[in-house]
Automatic annotation (TrEMBL):
This is KOW. Residues 28-48, 135-199 are annotated as: Disordered. Gene3D superfamilies: 2.30.30.140. Residues 135-152, 159-169, 176-199 have a biased composition (Basic and acidic residues). Coiled coil: none annotated. Residues 64-91, 262-289 form the KOW domain. One of its GO terms (cellular component) is spliceosomal complex. InterPro entries: KOW (IPR005824), Spp2-like (IPR045166).
Amino acid sequence: MDGKKGKGLEGMPRKMLKLFSMLGGLEEKGRNSGPQLVAPKGPDGQTRHVVGIDEKLVPREEANGVVGKVVRIVGGRHVGLKGKVVSKLGDDSKSSSTVVLKLLRSGEEFTVGEDEVAELGSVKEENYLRKLQEAKVRGSKDDRRHDERRDSWSCWGSGKKDEGIADRRNNKKRNREGERGSETKHDNGELHRREKERSEPVSWLTSHIRVRIVSKDYRGGKLYLKKGEIVDVVGPKTCDISIDESRELIQGVKQDILETAIPRRGGPVLVLYGKHKGVFGNLVERDMEKETGVVHDADGHALLNVRLEQIAEYLGDPSYIGY
């Protein structure tokens, strides 16, 4: 009995040491310094409180050494982007610990919960990417079904009603021509202005808007009709795009193979050019046949008539554009 006194934890059996690790880590009695030993993190990046028979305990800082690593954000406003962990805040033993992250592309620094990031190649990242892909596939199917129903309804309705509507419009137009010659000239001038605007390419690329690739030849057609977010505008008519389905970053994409993507009714939009350029709001209604829409200005609360090609779905924070 006396020979065993004073050995402290060093004389404990291996199984007892495992029990101590479950109760909050192992620290030798009588020592005022030295690293605290804990269970290593699991392959999914989560903190563990038990270890296997053949596993070794590691210093706490080694188990939580995320500082300096490149991770993917799997939650919050910047979800999907990659960044480097600059520092770690809070107590490792608490679930609410946060890290300071620096985005790889923009260099922006901000704090995010440690549970909202995943190391590259980890099980946690793979699970996030798989769920993201499944959500994108479901969303694409829903959009196609919605567009097909809308198109079929438009075709049916046009076959039944458009002839009578067109006749009434033509009659009204002929009546106005004799009585309002000056107004007709004004309309012709406005039409000429719009045609000129259409014929002259306008640079409308803007960060954080959703676009669609419309070239069948670009990259062998693999990205034809794929949607993505403009993450960076590198020239007047050149940008970098993050593809929605795969999160793949496509660099140096030319404006002439893109078209704007329009959200459903009520979705956030940004006016890209024209008289209302820079206005942010919600899409109140859209007419695919006339290619026009109505936008509710989020600032002045006015209803603005725009052409669909002038607007795009806005994915960024409104504060980025002064709202």
